[in-house]
Design goal:
The chain contains 12 helices and 23 strands. It has 455 residues and is α/β, with parallel strands linked by helices. The protein has 3 domains: 129 residues, Methylthiotransferase, N-terminal domain (Rossmann fold, 3-Layer(aba) Sandwich); 247 residues, pyruvate-formate lyase- activating enzyme (Alpha-Beta Horseshoe); 62 residues, OB fold (Dihydrolipoamide Acetyltransferase, E2P). Strand 1, helix 1 and strand 2 form a beta-alpha-beta unit. Bound molecules: 5'-deoxyadenosine and iron/sulfur cluster. The site of 5'-deoxyadenosine (5AD) has 12 residues, from strand 15.
Length: 455
């Protein structure tokens, strides 16, 4: 029998990284690696990093410094993800005790990299001898990943598309994740079928530009299917009751996808559709390839198709050249749409992106001020959206344990968090909760019905 080795993975950033971390654990399990909760004493430590904003990147270097004292002869330290991709050589220089640096497209080769790091370790005399794998291989990692080894519980992420060809002028993703790629329908279907057999009831289909999905058709058909058709196909799987997807781009919201919200009961009434700014001038400078008007038309149509659809977005304040007037346009758009939730950020200039070289960078104090105003408005909307649920009975999939004994939490169809006090038998099940209380971040109330066990 193989002796268990300990694997610690820390995940930063987006859901795609959460998915990737799970797949890395799957790949390493046959080599005897079992997941552990702390880096101390681990045989392999992987930091699965995020490069989207400066803060995320700095965090990686400070965490490396924190892990360094635990590093002994036995431990292999790897930096994976988008910082690895963007800054490979720099990491090796700044933190020569790192053994492996890899990008998001090469993690299927981890076993080989570990073997190389182990071989090299004895011979390693100084910096610059670590393993660096940051190319974009011709083969897709999806064709080389093993089946899932770890239980996913009742909800799971499934990556269906990766990369981005949009080149928004603020964003590093096209450089770190590479060109757009869609997995074939059959391979996704097989993965979701395995997950549902294992008890998964809700999947979130992931992609940097998930609604640009165009994967090879299944069922003997030729050509490609879009996201709407893919979801219709997945919805035929027994036991799969909820389908979500993120993140979408307004340019790729086609008719078939919008109609899926009307026609497929499993497709949840929730859409994360980042707009970034409400000013046409700024949208143009960001190279978003759509106008404010186009975005609002999409929202209107979606609401015709699915009256209760909850909306979410990302916003950036202080993009170069953003005036007070542009910022007002963003606030105005938010008032128009009424979001259920949203994420907002100060513009962070990223090396290698066109935005970083633009004139009229906005001073930090103005960004801070604008962000506070914007977040006040968004918080008020979120609070109002939650408050409107009081008195309603909503289905909640209880997929997480709360901090307190006997406390469970899950999401409504609109992606709100709901806390309940309940016996352990409810864990992993879909229940109806009569919402009695709402705060800005969560809902609570008694369970009024528990779904029947699905055989
Ligand atoms: N600065 C600030 N926010 C950014 N985002 C992406 N790049 C930057 C940047 N350079 C935000 C966008 C995107 C989300 C994932 O992160 O809003 O939708
Ligand atoms: Fe980045 Fe724009 Fe692509 Fe989204 S669409 S990943 S913001 S470049």
């Amino acid at each position: 029998m193989m002796t268990a080795k300990h694997l610690y993975i820390k995940t930063y950033g987006c859901q795609m990284n959460v998915y990737d971390s799970g797949r890395m654990a799957d790949i390493l399990q046959p080599l005897g690696y079992e997941l552990t909760e702390t880096p101390e004493g681990a045989d392999l430590v992987i930091l699965n990093t995020c490069h989207i904003r400066e803060k995320a990147e700095e965090k990686v270097y400070s965490d490396l410094g924190r892990i360094r004292p635990f590093k002994n002869d036995k431990m292999i330290l790897a930096v994976a993800g988008c910082v690895g991709q963007a800054e490979g050589a720099e990491i090796m220089r700044r933190a020569p005790y790192v053994d492996i640096v890899l990008g998001p497209q090469t993690y299927h080769r981890l076993p080989e990299m570990i073997a190389r790091a182990e071989r090299g370790r004895d011979k390693r005399k100084g910096p610059g001898r670590g393993v660096l794998e940051v190319d974009f291989p011709v083969e897709s990692k999806f064709d080389h990943l093993p089946e899932e080894r770890y239980e996913r519980g009742s909800t799971a992420y499934v990556a269906i598309q990766e990369g981005c060809d949009k080149f928004c002028t603020f964003c590093v993703v096209p450089y770190t994740r590479g060109a757009e790629y869609s997995r074939p329908v059959q391979s996704i279907y097989d993965e979701v079928a395995r997950l549902t057999l294992g008890g998964v009831k809700e999947i979130t289909l992931l992609g940097q530009n998930v609604n640009a999905y165009h994967g090879r058709a299944a069922g003997g058909q030729t050509g490609e299917w879009g996201l709407g058709k893919l979801m219709a196909h997945l919805a035929t799987l027994t036991g799969l009751t909820r389908i979500r997807y993120m993140t979408s781009h307004p340019r790729d919201m086609d008719e078939e996808l919008m109609a899926a919200h009307r026609d497929i009961p499993a497709v949840m009434p929730f859409l994360h559709l980042p707009v970034q700014s409400g000013s046409d001038r700024i949208l143009d400078a960001m190279n978003r390839k759509h106008t404010r008007g186009h975005y609002l038309e999409i929202i209107e149509k979606l609401r015709q198709y699915r009256g209760d659809i909850a909306l979410s977005s990302d916003f950036i304040v202080g993009f170069p050249g953003e005036t007070e007037r542009d910022f007002e346009d963003t606030l105005d758009l938010i008032r128009d749409v009424q979001y259920a939730q949203a994420y907002s950020f100060k513009y962070s200039p990223r090396h290698g992106t066109p935005g970083a070289l633009m004139d009229k960078q906005v001073p930090e104090d103005i960004k801070t001020e604008r962000l506070a105003v914007l977040q006040d408005l968004l918080n008020m909307q979120q609070q109002a959206f939650n408050a409107a649920c009081v008195g309603q009975t909503l289905p909640v999939l209880l997929d997480r344990k709360g901090k307190k004994e006997g406390q469970y939490l899950g999401k409504t169809p609109y992606l709100q968090s709901v806390y309940v006090e309940a016996p352990a038998s409810v864990f992993g099940r879909l229940v109806d909760v009569k919402i009695e209380k709402a705060s800005a971040n969560s809902l609570t109330g008694p369970i009024v019905k528990v779904e029947a066990f699905l055989q």
